[in-house]
Prior knowledge:
mainly alpha, single chain
Amino acid sequence: MRWLRRRTRQPDNEWLARFASLVSEIVARNPGGEAAESLDSLPELAPREKDMVVLILCMEIEHFGLSLTRAHYETLADLAARVGEADVLENMDLRRFVEDDDAPTGVG
């Protein structure tokens, strides 16, 4: 039983680490302003409300027009799928925020 508990916790820790890293990268790509302040609290909420933070992150991306790389989009899609929210990126058409280059753009 001990093995089972450890085994089931590992994906959660991996998911949380990937989510926190993604949020950090999106903030770095879109520095300053209300968006950065709004996104800062998401990793703290993530352990309790994974599906909700995915939805909030998607809404923040749309609301502030945050720039994403293809890698960001793919990571977000994977994280969303793991919490049963796979369709949210398509429903919100977040692909329109993906830029071809990986240079920071600075949305404020």
